[in-house]
C-alpha cells in the first residue's frame, strides 16, 4: 500500500499542474525564498592562451572551478540530459511524467526504483544542500526548482549544475572534476570519460574511482549501456569505452608560477580570474630546468629565473624557486623579488653611459693598474693587473679597476639615475651611492635586472615589464643611445659561451657577488631576455660558486627550452662608429680622466705608506716604505739626501734620518717621483 506522504507528494504535483488553483500556485512559487545562486569559485591564474596555471581552493578546502556550458564538450551535456533528465529543455522545473513513473515503480515494487528528480530539482538540492529522500525535502526541491525556472534560463540552471555537482572528495563541479580525474579541461571528453562523469554525482563517494574502481566502472558502464539503448552511441563506441580504465588516482591541480600567482592575488584579492602573459608550457619547462640545476649545486641552494619578450615587455616565465614546498631550500621565498647584490651585472650599463659621454670607445685603451680613490682601492677578482687593455676586453673579462675609473668620471649618481630610469628600485647602503656600486655595492632584484637588460636589448629604451595581459606597452625612459646599446650588446655577444653552447647568438653577462653569495647570468638575443640567479636565500656564501660556472649554463639551457634556435641580434645603427683603434680620434685612443691634465700619470710611482703627515714612532728601528706604480729600480731620498738606490722591491726599509719632520722622496727609473712629509718620534 502506498504511504501517505507519497499521496501528498502526488497531490502537490497535481496542484502545480492543475488550472483551478493556478493563481494560488503562482503566488506560492513567486514567494519562494531562493538560496544564493552565486557560489564562490576558485581564483584562477590563466596563461596567455587561457590555460590554467594555478587555482586556489574555496572555503573548506573545496575545489570548485568556474564553468559554463560553452566550456564543456557537447557530447557530455547531451549524455547528461539523456541520462538524468531527458525532458530538461521542455519542462518547467518539475517533470510530471518522471514523477508519475517513479511513483508507479514505487507502488509496483514496494520501494524506490528510479528517481523523479529533474536536473533543476538536483540544482535546488545542491545550492540548498538539502535532503534528497524525505517527502518534505522533495517538496521543497520542487518549489525551488519551479522558482528557479521562472527566474533563470535553462543555460543558467545547467551552469549551476555543472558548478555544484559533487564528484568525490573535495571536488565540486565538472571542470574541477575533469582536472582531478583526467588532468584536463572539459572541452573534449571521450565517451568513457563523459559516462563516468555522468555517473559520479549520483553517489560520489561510493563510486569514487580511486577508491572504488569496480563500483565506478559498473556505474560508468550502465550509463554507456543506456546511451547505446537510446541510440546515442553505437555498439562499437560502447565496446571501446568499456575497455578504458577508470582513473586510479586523483591528479593534483596545476601549481605553476606559485610565487607570482600569490603576489598577484594579494595585489587584487577581489579578482576571480587573472589573465597573465605567461606561457604555461614555457613556465613548466623553466621550473623543471631549475629543479635539475640545483640537484648538484648543494642541498640549500635555490635558484630563480625570469624570461621576457623584450619587444613587448611580456613576462613569459617567472620562477621564484625550484620547488615552492622545499623547506631546506627555503622554496617559499620568491627570489625574483629578493634584494641581492648584482655583482658585475651593472658594468654593461656603466660602459654604455661612458660610450654616450664620449669618454671611451670599445677600442679605447684603458689602464688596468693600481689605483685608489681616497681610501677606496679597487682590486680585480683575481688580484692581477693587466696594464693597458682595450675597453672591449675590459668588459668581456669583467675587470673591476677600469669600470671603477669610468664610474669615478661619470659619477655614481649618474649610474643610479640611469638604473632608476629603467624602472628599478634600488637599495643603497647609507642612502648615498659610492664607487662600489660598479662592483655590486647596492641591492636590486632579479626582475629589475632583467628590466635593465631588456632596455639594453631594445636599443637603450625598453618597455615596462608586466605579467598581466593588456598591461604592457608603456616604455621607461631612455637609458643610453641606440649606438651605445648596440656597442654593449656587440661586446657581450663576443663572450665565450659555456661548453657546448653556440657562440655569438646571445649577448650575456655573468656576475658573482662578494663572498660568493649570488651567482648571476643574464642574456638576450633579438627577441628575448632571460635572467638567472642562484644562491642561498638566507644570503650565506656558496663556496666556489661563480656566475660563469653555475648560472651561465642554466641561462643557455633556458634559451634552448624557450624556443627552437635564436633570434638574430640587431645590426648596428647607422651612426655607430665602427673603426679600429688606430682610426679613433686622438682623445678616444686612450682613456684619461677629464682632470688628467692636472693629475700625475696613471702609472706614476706612489708612496702608499707612510701616508703624508703621519707620525711614526721609531723605537730605534728603520722606517718602512711601501710603493705602488712606477718602474724599478727606485731611489729614496730623505731630506734631499740619497739614502738608498737601485731598489727593485716595493717594500723598502731605510735607516731613520733622525727625529722631527722629514721629507721622504721616491724616484723611479723614469725620473717620476712621489713624496710624503712625516714626523719621526
UniProtKB/TrEMBL annotation:
Name this protein carries in UniProt: peptidoglycan glycosyltransferase
The organism's taxonomic lineage, starting at the top: Bacteria, Pseudomonadati, Pseudomonadota, Alphaproteobacteria, Rhodobacterales
Catalysis: reaction(s): [GlcNAc-(1->4)-Mur2Ac(oyl-L-Ala-gamma-D-Glu-L-Lys-D-Ala-D-Ala)](n)-di-trans,octa-cis-undecaprenyl diphosphate + beta-D-GlcNAc-(1->4)-Mur2Ac(oyl-L-Ala-gamma-D-Glu-L-Lys-D-Ala-D-Ala)-di-trans,octa-cis-undecaprenyl diphosphate = [GlcNAc-(1->4)-Mur2Ac(oyl-L-Ala-gamma-D-Glu-L-Lys-D-Ala-D-Ala)](n+1)-di-trans,octa-cis-undecaprenyl diphosphate + di-trans,octa-cis-undecaprenyl diphosphate + H(+)
Domain Penicillin-binding protein transpeptidase: 304-525
Ranges of residues in domain Glycosyl transferase family: 60-227
Top-level taxon of the source organism: Bacteria
Family designation: In the C-terminal section; belongs to the transpeptidase family. In the N-terminal section; belongs to the glycosyltransferase 51 family.
Pfam families the record matches: BiPBP_C, Transgly, Transpeptidase
Organism: Seohaeicola nanhaiensis
Occurrences of domain Penicillin-binding C-terminal (ranges): 601-678
E.C. code: 2.4.99.28
Listed pathway(s): Cell wall biogenesis; peptidoglycan biosynthesis
Keywords assigned: Carboxypeptidase, Glycosyltransferase, Hydrolase, Multifunctional enzyme, Protease, Transferase
